[in-house]
Amino acid sequence: MTPTPRPVDEPAPVARVRLLWPAVIGYALVAAVARPLTGPAAGAVLLPGGALLAVGLRRVPDRLRQVGPRAAVVWLGLGVLFCLWELGALLAGNDEAHPTFSIFTDPLLDTYPGRVVGYLLWLGTGAWLVTR
Amino acid sequence: MTARAVITAGFLAILLVMLVVDVAGRRGVGPARAPLGEALTAAIRTTAGRALVLGVWLWLGWHFLAR
User: Fold this and answer.
1) Chain B residues with CB-CB distance to A under 8 A?
2) Which of the two ends of chain B, N or C, has the fewest CB atoms closer than 10 A to its terminal CB?
3) pLDDT digits over A70-107, tens only?
4) Cα–Cα distance between A20 and B3 in angstroms, integer?
């Protein structure tokens, strides 16, 4: 028997949400100790990343939402535009005179509080995606 | 105007447009008429969509936090 999807605006079960977000915050506080370009940082990303990817690929979203082709074209177009702009900066030099988006974020992610924010945004987005 | 200023202005402009389209989408107006969250929720309805969105998400984490 196929489970009935929850309506789009219905919140996820309270117990799951209660456990998920403190876990995301706790993980961000610990994972941010690892500096980029180190083994621990790679593990800190790949461990939850792989787990959420595996869960997300298997799980059919409860909240079924359809948007028109117009929305898809606009959002996809903006994403592609951002990628092309990033690619242009990369090919132009990827240096201080021709900065990619990473060069702008590097000073922030070099600090512990900045990495905590980075992990919160990234892991929070992943958790949000797999709980749709 | 330096190349740095042009590139910076471009990033800011794209992000600003995304913000405006998202806010407008929450009100059911604007070019997309749907916020980014709704578009992503729609995109992950299919296996291919989930693979694409989650793959991009994983790459972003790797690129910004680990590499």
Assistant:
1) 2-4, 7-8, 10-11, 14-15, 17-18, 21, 25, 31-34, 36, 38-45, 47, 50-51, 53-55, 57-58, 60-67
2) N
3) 999 999 999 999 999 999 999 999 999 999 999 999 99
4) 43
Q: What is the pLDDT of residues B9-61, one digit of tens each?
A: 999 999 999 999 999 999 988 888 899 999 999 999 899 999 999 999 999 99
Query: Which residues constitute the domain of residue A35?
Result: 13-62+110-130
Of A107, A86, A100, A97, the residue nearest A36 (C-alpha)? A107
- ipTM score for this prediction: 0.90
Is A9 a residue whose pLDDT tops 70? no
On whether residue A124 sits in a domain, the answer given is yes
Decide: B3 and A97 in contact? Cβ < 8 Å. yes
From chain A, pick out residues whose CB is under 8 angstroms from the CB of B63: 102
Structural domains in chain A (count) = 1
Residue A67's region, left for phi above 0, alpha for psi from -120 to 50, else beta, is beta
Cα A89 to the center of its chain, rounded Å: 23
